[in-house]
Design goal:
By secondary structure, this protein is of the alpha/beta class. The chain contains seven helices and seven strands.
């Protein structure tokens, strides 16, 4: 489901969908454990929470799902929502069953939108697989319409000290570190927090779910609204 390729170094020579040298045990670490997510009941609360946010802010808007996997989120959305996904795994995209959705086979870094813009951009359990979450947030913030929002979900996994050391020495992003980076970035850039919540799941750590709006976009939307009212 997630763009795991973001954090891989070029020297590793790993290409999109090159899984021949990856063991089943390492699949989740190197590529993203997207397989079978549609059947995981414990994932449902997170998808439902994201769908509720979409209904609240842009019920008939356009959505860009970065690291969409099999496009599961589209199943939770109204037909009025225009859904687009980005996913580096051709195997994941082959499992996309809904003909109404559009998915691009590319990484988040390589994605080119052209002139297209979206009302909502979603990083659903994706950012902590990036070596530079801040750069991705900035890149995709520029692809929002005025008054657009970014929804970010990060699983609050509690790693052992051994795992934390491993992430430190191999310079890989952990969930906790990514959460700290994202929070500091939002504060430092003065992004507007529209909604922040914790989504619980049975006998496991929760998800941190935050909805933000870059201030420049909010200002543009306010100016547009003022101009419209003045014209009336």
């Amino acid at each position: 489901m997630i763009d795991r390729l973001v954090g891989l170094k070029p020297s590793q020579g790993t290409k999109l969908d090159d899984t021949s040298r990856i063991s089943k045990l390492n699949w989740n670490d190197d590529y993203g454990d997207w397989q079978g997510l549609a059947s995981y009941e414990d994932q449902r609360p997170r998808y439902q929470a994201i769908a509720r946010i979409i209904r609240e802010f842009h019920p008939e808007g356009s959505v860009l799902d970065v690291g969409c996997g099999e496009g599961i989120l589209a199943n939770y959305l109204s037909p009025a929502v225009r859904y687009t996904g980005i996913e580096p795994s051709a195997k994941a995209l082959a499992a996309v069953s809904a003909s109404k959705i559009t998915c691009h086979h590319t990484t988040a870094e390589e994605f080119q939108s052209g002139e297209e813009r979206w009302d909502i951009i979603i990083f659903n359990e994706m950012l902590y697989y990036s070596s530079d979450p801040e750069a991705l947030l900035m890149k995709f913030a520029n692809l929002l319409w005025p008054n657009g929002i970014i929804i970010n979900s990060i699983y609050q996994k509690r790693n052992s000290w051994r795992t934390c050391l491993k992430f430190f020495f191999i310079n890989r992003m952990s969930n906790a570190r990514c959460t700290r980076i994202v929070k500091a970035f939002i504060t430092g850039e003065n992004w507007i927090i529209e909604k922040e919540q914790t989504i619980s799941q049975l006998n496991r750590e929760p998800w941190w779910l935050i909805t933000v709006c870059p201030p420049s976009l909010a200002s543009m939307a306010n100016i547009k609204e003022m101009v419209t009212l003045a014209a009336v």
